[in-house]
Amino acid sequence: MENFKSFAEKTVVGPLRPFTAIVGPNGSGKSNLMDAISFAVGEKTHTLRGKQLRDIAYRKPDEESSAERSRTCQVSLFIVDDVGKETCFSRRLTPSGSSEYKIGRRTVTHQVYSKSLESIGIFNRARCNFLVFQNEVQNIANQSPKDFGTVFELASGSGELRDEYNNKKQLKDNAEENVVFIFKKKRGLISERKQYKRQQDEAQQYHKILEKLEECKSDQASFRLYHMNKELKSLEENLSEELREMTLVKTKTDELETAIDNGRKELASMNMEKTVKLRRKQSTAAESEKHRPDGVRILTQLQRVRSRIRAEEKALEKARDEQRKHTQELASLEASHRDLSDAMSTIEAELVDAQGTEVSRENIREYKNLKDSVETQASISRRELAAAERSRRLVLQKKTTLEARRDQLKAELEISSAEISTFQEGVERSKSKLAAAQGAASTLRLELESMREEALNRKRQREDLEKTASDTSESLREANANTAESAKEQRFQEALQSMKRMYPGVKGAISELCKPTQRKYREAIALVFGKLMDAIVVDNAQTGEECISYLKEQRAGKATFLPLSDLRPPPLDENFRRLGGTVRPVLDILTFRQEFRAAIQYAAGSALICDTLEEARRVRFGPRGVRVKICSLDGTLISPSGFITGGVSVLEEGATSKWDRSEIEMLKKRRDNAVRQLEELPGPSEERRRESEAVQKELDSRSTLAQLQIDLKQKEARLSRFQTVAEEAEQALEAVEGEFTEVESTLAERDASVALIRTGIETIEERVFTDFIKRANSASIREFEETVLQRVESLEERKLSLKQQLSKVESHLDYLRSKDVESPVKRLEDSLSGQSDMVQALQREEQDFQQNKEKRERLLTELEDSTRSIATRYETLEVEQTRRKAELTNLSEIFGSHRKVVTALETQVESQRSRQKELLRYYRMEQIKVRFNRESEDGTVEPFELSAVETGDLPQNVVLDVTSLNRRQREASTSDARAEFETKFANQCESLQNQLDKLAPNLRAPEHMTDIEQRVEGINREFEDARKEASKFTRDFEEVRKRRYDLFMECFNHVAENISDVYKELTRSAAYPMGGTAYLTLESEEEPYLSGIKYNAMPPTKRFRDMDQLSGGERTVAALALLFAFHNFRPAPFLVLDEVDAALDNLNLARVSGYIRRRAADLQMIVISLKDFFFEKADALVGVLRKMDDNKSNILTLELMEFDDSQDEADPLQTPSAPEARPRVQEILS
User: With 80 as the cut, is the pLDDT of residue 195 above it?
Assistant: First the structure.
């Protein structure tokens, strides 16, 4: 071997010994040696375990597939004959993938190669005499008698005569049939000749009656044809009218279909335009929605700034009022101060004048001196008095200031309280408005969310409904395409629906009452039901009879009726549900109402369904085969008798679609329901309008809410500011009141102190001024002062009063001058100026926003109008399309009714024409003379013979001649009148025919006598020639049959004679020295090669049983016995066995190995084995091992003859024990 399969390198095996065993682990390449021998002897590729010849060449693990085309291999077989001559048979796989054969060094053809192998006993057609492949022994034992006969034909060579045998048998059978046929023909001619002699005498009388009969038949034919033509013309006129009506309807239908197609396109275009508009509208609305917060922001800011401006304007006005009041008050105080200052100057001048004029200067001087003395004496008291008065004035001044401050704080507190009250009311109103606005905004937001959710739900519902409508419409289109019914089926369905309406007991067809649980079972169940698929289920037999009468009256076809009251189907065997795999009864994969169970069970029977044909075969033909109807999903049906019909092609067209009718009705209901619900839902434009209004309301509420919140915050801020001012004023007032109380207390103390000091001073004055008073004639110094110094004192008091007023005015002036009333006004004016600028900027921004908003709103309005216009046009067109479709449906129904009428009329016309043709053909065949006239082009009329018509169609210019018919016959318009004339014609013809039948002469008998004699003479010669030819073909056939029989029986007899001895030798033991029995039996003794051969083997102590009842080892031994017997008939130089010991136990191994060892004396045995108990008996071992790194097989050999011992010739009758029967070869192998 070179490059063969796993033997990569050049490998030499042998020389092989008489008994050589090939051993090695699984996957090492042992069977590749078997394939190498098979390849060398010219076996085909499929026996070499390859798909193509290139597969047998060695391929490296890393070799690319491109190198596969250039691979080659070669196997050479060296055979040595009895005289020692060695012959080399070589077969080589060329790079092109073909085989090259050589004998020695000479290249030969495959035919020469095979002939050379056959010359040494190697026959490829019967390779069982030299090659036994793995698992082939079991296959041989399990073969049928017919297969055994085929094996014997191959082994004997009789199979080569099969074609010659069949050809010559066919020639012989044809020749014998020809002889029989000619003999029958000859006998008929002789009988015919006798009849002609009897018929000559009756000819004359016959002619007379025949003329009358022909005339009667001619009149009858003319009568029939005339009225048939009238009826045909009427039908053709009706057909033409219906065709014209149908053409008009078809034209309208085509116009409507064109309009519907155009409308569909226009709808699609409008839908596209609408989608574009909606997208643009959505983008514009989204942009508006995007910029809407900007508008709210601008409006809010503008309102906030304007509110601030209004507040600041009020504050500015108030500040200006305060400034104006402050200025006026300041001016008034300054004027008062000037008046008081002028008054003070006047009083001081008057005081100086008064002091100088009222008393004498001496008195005044003395008074002053005394006064000075008093002042000196009371200097301390004066100082104390001055200090006390000064302190009192300060306290009094402080009291005056505190009074003014208290009055001012009270005024501020009153103003703040009034503002607080006002703003508190405003805050409460704003809070109330804000709460109401918040509630309204929340309500609007919830309504908007609810509306959006409802809109979303409606959108989803609309999408679901549109999808449902679309899907159901698509399903209906597919279902209508798949359930196209013929006119016959339509009539049947119409009749079934009519019967359901007329007879309540009609339940429906089987296909309507049940349904497969899954679609994949439909074809198989339809095959199981067969014609019962259309069987109609009724309640009782009476209803079925009434339905049959109805079908006959309506001529609606035939139907099978299943009365539920009379059906008693056998119960289903529960074991069928436990067969396993995918096998299940038909009843279990059908859904139906229990009241129809009897009918469904009757139709389904005990039939089974399975997925694959292999599983169906297993269930039907397996060990526990069930004799019921079994069907696979691919449509292959196995009948209870075992016949197989394959494929869904045997199904009646449209059988499975009958289940779709109920689904179609459900789909129609679903579609109509979806369309109705879609019509009830508001349109998308209405949805968008509602949502837009709700959004606008919600946005307005947001804006109002924001404005109210800003206003509330401003009012709360001002309220807080006034509350702070009021609190500060109250705190300041409390402090001023406390301080005022303290000042009053201090002032009282000061007054008391001043009074006390003045009392002391007055005491000193009285003591000092005592003499002066006397001289001045005054009661006291006080009186002097009152009388003399009254004016001075008055002026002093006025001066003091003015001084106090002036001090108060100056204090108030200081307060007013210290109060800043310009800054608030300036600050408010600056703020107002900034707020005005901000308002102008916001107004410009608002103006821009409003312009853009108006532009977008105009665009949205335009888009909305355009969308609404498109929607209106779309809805109008949809309505128009619906109307068109309804009109189309109506026209289709009208067209269908016209088509039914046309079909019926065409059928009637065709039937009438067919009847006319049949009549004409019948008249022509019966040679009934029907009178016709033919009008030529020149207007002349001449008779026309019916015999000139070949097809039954009359030429256009040929008309029926009805001159032989009277007026009553031509004007018979009713069926009764025509039937009366038909009866008369028939009776007259029958009477004449009866007369002719009684005579029955052969009118041309004299003419035929000469012809019949010649024909009889010719048939005699033809018969003799046919008989000689049949004899010759019979001899040729018998010769081939004998050769085939001899070859077959030679092989059979030889094998039959040897097989018993071989089997006995293979089964003999010490306990059973006679061994078993094996024999072959022919099923046909005459021609055994056309029948089969039965092979039976009975091991020792076993009774007779079929081969498949034996154990695996027993079948293997029986098969080996047959193989060895075959080899004895046509011995080959060697016998190769591949793992034939796989099913053998140790006892049978010992027997078989012993037998092989004994046969090895005259036959080279090559055995592939895995059992050491077997191969240890060999003369040599060939070990096969595989190197896993390069996937190559190598060969090791071991000679065992040098270890041979006496057990080689052991008595086969001795049963070897386990340890004693094994030679020490096992020790060597281990």
Answer: no
| CB-facing half-sphere around the CA of 279: CA atoms within 13 A | 6
- Residue-level length of the chain: 1230
The amino acid sitting at 227 is H
* 958-960/932-935 β-pairing: antiparallel
In this structure, whether the domain defined by 506-653 belongs to CATH 3.30.70.1620 is answered with yes
CA distances to 80, 416, 419, 891 from 409, rounded to whole Å, are 151, 10, 15, 102
Q: Which of 1108, 1106, 1111, 1101 is nearest to 1076 (CA)?
A: 1101
Helix (H, G, I), strand (E, B) or coil at 543: helix
Q: Name the one residue in this structure whose structure tokens are 């600056």.
A: 830
Which one, of 270, 265, 249, 261, lies nearest residue 885 by Cα?
Answer: 261
Structure tokens at 499: 């019967």
Q: Please tell me the number of Cα atoms within 13 Å of 881 on its side-chain side.
A: 15
Q: Which tokens belong to 64?
A: 């690319």
Note the pLDDT of residue 1207. Answer: 46
Per-residue pLDDT averaged across 408-414, rounded? Answer: 78
Q: Which long-range contacts (CB under 8 A, 24 or more apart) does 1022-1027 make?
A: 1022/182, 1023/179, 1023/182, 1023/183, 1023/186, 1026/175, 1026/178, 1026/179, 1026/182, 1027/179
Residue 1022 tokens read as: 């033809």
In which residue are the tokens 């929340």 written? Answer: 442
Q: Which run of H or of E encompasses 103?
A: strand 99-103
CA 560 – CA 548 distance, rounded (Å): 9
Average pLDDT value over all residues in the chain: 78
Residue 509's beta-bridge partner residues? 536
SS3 91: strand
Rounded Cα distance, 991 and 1001, in Å: 17
Amino acid residing at 591: T
299 and 704 Cβ atoms separated by less than 8 Å:
no
Please tell me the distance from the alpha carbon of residue 748 to that of residue 761, in angstroms, as a whole number.
Answer: 20
Average pLDDT over residues 393-400: 82
Listed by start position, the domains of the chain span 166-200+1009-1035, 506-653
Helix, strand, or coil here: 85?
A: coil
Residue 1185, H or E segment: strand 1180-1187
Question: Is the model more confident about 931 or about 1030?
Answer: 1030
Query: Does residue 1171 carry a pLDDT above 70?
Result: yes
- Over residues 688-694, the mean pLDDT reads 73
Q: Which of 280-284, 440-444, 507-511, 722-726 has the lowest mean pLDDT?
A: 280-284
Which run of H or of E encompasses 585?
Answer: strand 584-585
What pLDDT sits at residue 562?
A: 92
Asked if the model's pLDDT at residue 545 lies above 60, the reply is yes
Q: Please report the DSSP string for 854-888 in residue order.
A: HHHHHHHHHHHHHHHHHHHHHHHHHHHHHHHHHHH
Cα 319 to chain centroid, rounded = 83
